[in-house]
Amino acid sequence: MSNNYEIPTTISDAISSVNYSPSAPTTLLVSSWDQTLRLIDTHAGTSGRELVRVDASAPVLDACFAGQDGTKAVAGGLDQGVKYFDLSRSTQTATLSTHSSAVKSVAYNNDLSTIISGSWDRSLHLHDARTSSQTSSHTLPHKIFSLSTITNKLVVAMASRSIHIYDLRSMSEPLQRRESSLKFMTRTVRCMPNGEGYASSSIEGRVAVEFFDPSKESQSRKYAFKCHRQPDGDVDVVYPVNALAFHPTYGTFASGGGDGVVALWDGVAKRRLKQYPGYPASIAAMGFSNNGRYLAIASCNGFEDGKETVPNPENKLFVREMGENEAKPKSMG
Amino acid sequence: MADPVQLSVIEAQKENIIALPGGRSARALAQSILAAEDTETQNLEHAAAREAFENELKTADELDDPLDPFLRYVRWIQETYTAGGGRLLEKTLYRATHKFEDSAEFKNDARYLRLWMTWIQQFSDAPRESFAFLARKGIGAGLALYYEEFAAYLESQNRRAQAEEIYEMGIQRNARPVERLRRKYDEFAARLAANPPDLNEPSSPAVPIVRAALGERRTETETRDPQAPVQGFGAEGQAPQKKKNKMMIFSDAPGAAAPALPAPSERDGGWDSIATLAERKKENVDAPRPWAGEILKQEGAPAPKKGKLQIFRDPAAFQSHYQEPSLSQSGKPRRRETVFAALELVYMHGEGHDECDFDELRARSRGLLNIDWSEIRREDERRRQRQQHLDRDRARAQQEDDMMMDMLGSRHAVVEKEPEEVPDENAKFVTKSTTVTLALSSSPKAKPKKKRRSMAMQLSTEPTMTMHTRAANDEIYSIFNQPFVAQDDFASQGKKQESSDEDEEDDGERTDTMYSQGSRAANDERTDMLRGAFGEDEDTGFTAIDVDTLRQRAQEEGVPVEELDRMHLDNEDAMVDDTMDEEPHTIYNHRGSRQLPFMTPIVEQTESLPPSTLRGARGRRKSTTTPCKPGRTGRDDALIDLSSPFQDENDKALPGNNGKMAVFSDKENIPEIPSEKHQRSKPTETSLISFEDLEPRGGAKEDRKPAPSNALQPKKQAAPSSSAKGSSGATIDDAQCNPMDPAVRDMIISKLSEPLTSFKGFYDNSSQPSKRSDGIRKYIRAITATGKDAPKVIPSQPVIGLENGEISYTIRKEIGKGAFAPVYLAENNMAGMYDDENGEEETAGETATIGISKRCELEAIKMETPISTWEFYITRLAHQRLGNHRATQSLVNAHEFHLFKDEAFLVIDYFAQGTLLDLVNATASPNNSLHTQSGAMEEILVMFFAVELLRTVEALHSRGILHGDLKADNCLLRLQPVGANGNNPNEKDSEWGSAYDPEGENGWNKKGLVLIDFGRGVDMHNFRKDVGFLADWKTDKQDCPEMREMRPWTYQIDYYGVAAVVHSMLFGKYIETTTVSGDNAPGRPKRYRIVSGMKRYWQGEIWNEMFDLLLNPGMFVDGEEGGVMPVTKGVRAVRQKMEEWIVANCERGVGLKGWLRKVEDGVKRRR
After folding, report:
1. What are the boundaries of each domain within chain B?
2. Where is the composition biased (Acidic residues) (chain B) (predicted)?
3. Which of A243, A293, B8, B103 is the most buried (most CB within 10 A)?
4. Strands A50-55 and B736-737
5. Closest Cα partner for B369 from A282, A82, A58, A303?
6. Do domains B1-99 and B105-112+122-261+274-292 have the same CATH topology?
7. Is the bond into B1126 cis (omega within 30 degrees of 0)?
């Protein structure tokens, strides 16, 4: 059914994010702790062609495409700057803004051409992608861990299990302030492609699916479930869920855990569609291609247990080609 | 009529008279006091009286009033034993009270109640419970006395609301005399009105009663009602006004409490055992029985709480809100779970604080979290501006350079393109390759930016070269010895700049100053490079390779030999050879003979990138700009290097838009070049990244440029030991460890790139036993023995011959005795022979001679059993690291180390003037000439030595060395003669100025201290940046608070040590510290201060600042490089203040010089 293969890379340190280009289904943006931002052609055969590589001055914690043509990218990392890159010229063109701590997450909202960056300094910066300039800055109560945006919504997952939902058009006040449905630290948050809600994952093997609509009826649809647990004797070892990725067309989503397992879920039917075990290390990041055919999976030491070996031997990039109906919800036949 | 009582008698004894509620008869008092003076008679009399009473008591039951004998007995005791009857009174009271506690006829007998009150007052350890007991028994229920006393007691305990209850209760009961009770109540009410009860007081009306009943049981377990304010056992002392009422009875006893009371017999047991805990516990065990119902409830109460345990509640609560999808939980029984993530790290900041992301943890563990990026950015900006400025200045040099490159380039058929003007934003964008000090390339912009630019090329454009001559060498030394130059001075040109750069390097501060980078960092890079070249993945793997192997492999791999050499050379090798300009080959020749000149730090003025990125890139960044001069060695044509700058172009010239390029990482870089140019290929390179040729030159340039500079960067600190260990490749990668652990040390020693055996003065005879120690010990025993133990014939002084007699020492006496390592004074029989040798070495520029000063006739030999090479190693290392820094004088020299199978001898300097401890003791000892009135040293002397200590520690720390065992007995006085002919007493100190000079001029550098015993020294370069040490030995007050509190420490050990030494000088006693009160709120770090107070006329401000800094270094890291220890700047600031003060005050009165002279003479006399 699905075909899984490894992309040979020269990435020498933990991968922090993988994002498929919005314009090309085989072009993957990879950011890494080795202080690089790379554009990799995932279908260049065994050579794993690296199209572009840009060096940053510090480990990059997150990156994403800024725009639909796949030529611009934005990245943030330990050097606290939100960097704007012109991938066609393999260069950084601007530092959009500077946080006072490491930039943990960046996101791009296509509808509003807005680049959002969130940092451990508890601030959120908004930038206009068209002018490459910062438009506003917002202070939040906690360190920001993950950002995700869809339509005009922005979901900010913070420390202390705090989640804010903003309307990007009026950022002065959050639309909603929520406490995470999960008991432990939020690891990542991703919005549903249909804009109805979001999924968040915690470091304690759970994923919660919630909806924006504050109505009681809609809120009653939210749920959470356990995943990424491995039996060890009579004890289940619970792994963090590090990565979530929604399928762009079907709305199903994949979760990647510290156990090196990727699972595919049907959020509507509340069923697990598939499970792909056997990745060599913790799943650090995942991303679906724009056509939903490919799922890029980065596997490396995730530092979940506070340890890492130097150098990191299991620092690998995989692509899983989805079968025709593999990621299709059962309900849709 | 009796004589009037002699009140003076009573007056004299009044402190021994215990007050009785009813007062005492003055006559009886006087009598018993007078009688007490005749102890023997008194004892007999008392015994007789006691016996009479006891007899009476035996028959008391037959009396009409059985209480009467008790009353009289008690009265007699009180009067006779004016100081309180003690055990006798207690026993008697106990018997009296308990005998009748169940007799109805005495329940409302005031006399009986009074006995109780006396007992409670003087002997009850829980008066409230005693009152409660009385209430339960109904004793005194009808007597106002009970209520008054009880209320008074409660009032004294600040339970006024309860006291009021008691009064009311008594009045309601009509306890007689009710009038008096009313009056007391009114008085109480008045007091209450004057001082209304605090809201926090226990005020619940019913509570006192119920609690009192329960409280009694509790007292026996917990001794006291938790609600009660701390009610010391001394509370009985307040008894006179305390016992009043039995409130307990009325609310408590009639209802639930009364039936629950233990049987009288059990109560007896309880009172019986008031003094012994075991008894109380016994009763406690009994008590629950009658209370069964209540107790079960209480025990039951917590049970539901168990249900609140998080594990169980979580899913329950969860499911109430969320529907659990069937897929994850198909009705299976719940299994135990364990969370894989390191929750303790994630939630390391505790509740209420933000948890830490895994990325943050990773960054933290790699030490990337606390980098001051804003400073880097500023620096970057400054650099950029400076660069523009310099660009103009260098236009000419650039042209020349280009010409030359063209020439060379064409020779290798490589095309050199002029890079285009770099856009500003590119210049700003700092790639990681920027880490290193850049080689001075004359043309920042127009030059090829390839990292692997050859050294020769660099040199060709280097305008500030000097000949490698002795004079030049000296000059460079002097540069290094200049005080630290602020980074603002960097703009200045030429050598000065280089020197300041170098200076900073010295300080190991490599974060944000533009050109500075710790050589350690540079070493990292090198290590990385080499590791990459050798394909070794293990951090530690590399360090184990010894130099020769390295060199050999380097040749095979194309790593320049000088690269390796430099790693092992010392800081003074900062030389640039002019000749290299034209003849690159000479470099090799020099190197080959290990005399090669070393480069001054060649600083690229143009494109330096933030050195701090280095840190960010620590360890595993891919493009570390290591000096890439591949293909240099191992190839006969040195000019091959020259091709490297063009390699870039060569790559670009490859067909296709995405011409293959060398990856900029050092790891890949090195092999890459050969693969293209020299048919040496490594599999990794072939698949290397292709660059779009759209890439602007600017970006590329930045990438590649810095490399060569790195190559030229002399490794100032590249002592053999440190070279192979970078911060990333720390030899010991544990976050916490005991640095004195022999295993740790062995590992460090074993990983030295240059083995210990190659150190000068290291004599390895580890295969053979020495057996020399016995003779020495025997001799020492003989000469120290006295009396009849003393042997008639003193054995001749043992001569230790070493190295086949080439070296020999005659042992004179024992001068120090450590636990394992006795130190002997030895005569160096070869002293005269060293001079020539030394001279040779100097001319040869041999690095190992650093710090090895002239040998003396008298030296000290430390005999180490068990064997430890560590002290020798770390002492040498400290000398190497410090180089010609002034503080080197303050470190003991380790001349030789003779290693045998069974023992080892360390030959060190001998200083005859004794230790600071001796000096402190001499000052304190009244018979000594150095004795002062206060018993402590003169303040200016203390400050002088403190400055010396601080300077030394500051220098050691800035170079990553910890002494680890600073104490007064490890500081030797170093008061050397000043002057050309120092040995002539008449001319002694002739050139010693009386005005103190902080820089050591006018002979002041001859006066100071010497630190000995580096046996606990630590080289921080062997450890991770964020390492915390843990001590596994037993700590005491002389150890720093971190150690005592089992917290990790690093530099604190020395700071505390300095504080302790200064403290002992200043106060003449060992240091004691305490936390600053009010400042130790939970969660906040404790702040320590010394216990002793300053003398009024001392420089309290300076001293306090110093102690504050040294005791709490962690609170002063803000201004330091990188915000981490060592607090070098803080220490320097304090030291400078001290120096200023000394300068201003050194000539007052006796003067510092005078004091030092005195000390000198004093210690001489003592010897």
Report:
1. 1-99, 105-112+122-261+274-292, 399-723, 737-909, 916-1159
2. 500-509
3. A243
4. unpaired
5. A58
6. yes
7. yes
Q: How far is CA B47 from CA A147, B50, B71, B80, in A?
A: 92, 5, 18, 12
B660 DSSP assignment: B
Residues of chain A contacting B688 with CB distance shorter than 8 Å:
10
Task: Compute the residue count for chain A.
Answer: 333
Structural tokens at position B84: 């309180």
Task: Flag if A204 and B434 touch (Cβ within 8 Å).
Answer: no
Full DSSP string of B1138-1153: HHHHHHHHTTSTTHHH
| CB-based contact B371 A306, cutoff 8 Å | no
Candidates 3.40.980.10, 3.40.50.620, 3.30.470.20, 3.30.200.20; CATH matching B737-909: 3.30.200.20
Query: Would the CB atoms of A14 and B362 count as touching at under 8 Å?
Result: yes
Distances in whole angstroms, Cα of residue B79 to Cα of each of B73, B110, B240, B488, B1112? 10, 20, 17, 88, 59
Report chain B (1167 residues): mean pLDDT per 10 consecutive residues: 66 73 74 69 79 83 82 82 74 80 81 84 76 79 86 82 83 84 88 72 45 40 40 39 47 36 40 41 52 56 49 45 40 70 80 80 80 79 78 63 55 42 40 35 39 40 45 59 46 42 42 39 44 40 42 48 43 38 38 34 35 37 38 37 38 40 38 38 37 39 38 38 43 76 80 77 77 75 65 67 71 71 78 46 36 66 80 85 82 83 82 82 76 77 89 87 84 77 53 80 83 84 81 72 79 87 85 70 69 83 88 80 80 89 83 83 66
- ipTM for the assembly: 0.91
Q: Which of B327, B610, B698 is facing A271, going by the closest CB pair?
A: B327
What is the sign, positive or negative, of the torsion defined by CA atoms of A292, A298, A303, A305?
positive
- Minimal Cα–Cα distance from A58 to chain B, Å? 6
Nearest Cα neighbor of B208 from B262, B244, B171 is B244
Structure tokens at B990: 């002739």
Contact B318 A224 (CB under 8 A): yes
Inter-helix orientation angle B561-568/B519-534, to 10°: 140
Fold topology of B105-112+122-261+274-292:
1.25.40
Q: Find the helix or strand (DSSP H, E) in which A271 lies.
A: strand A271-276
| Chain B: closest CA distance from residue A174 (Å) | 20
A91 contacts B426? CB cut-off 8 A: yes
Of the candidates B329, B354, B699, the beta carbon closest to that of A160 is on B354
The CA dihedral of B667, B670, B674, B675, to the nearest 10 degrees, is 20
Within 8 A by CB and 6+ apart from B10, the residues are B17, B26, B29, B30, B33
- Taking the C-alpha atoms of residue B270 and residue B284, their distance in angstroms, rounded to an integer, is 9
Helix ranges (H only) for B653-790 are: 666-677, 683-686, 697-704, 706-712, 720-723, 742-750, 773-784
The candidate with the shortest Cα–Cα distance to A147, out of A76, A83, A225, is A76
User: Which of these CATH numbers, 1.25.40.430, 3.40.50.150, 3.30.360.10, 1.20.1250.20, describes B1-99?
Assistant: 1.25.40.430
CB contact under 8 A, B324 and A12: no
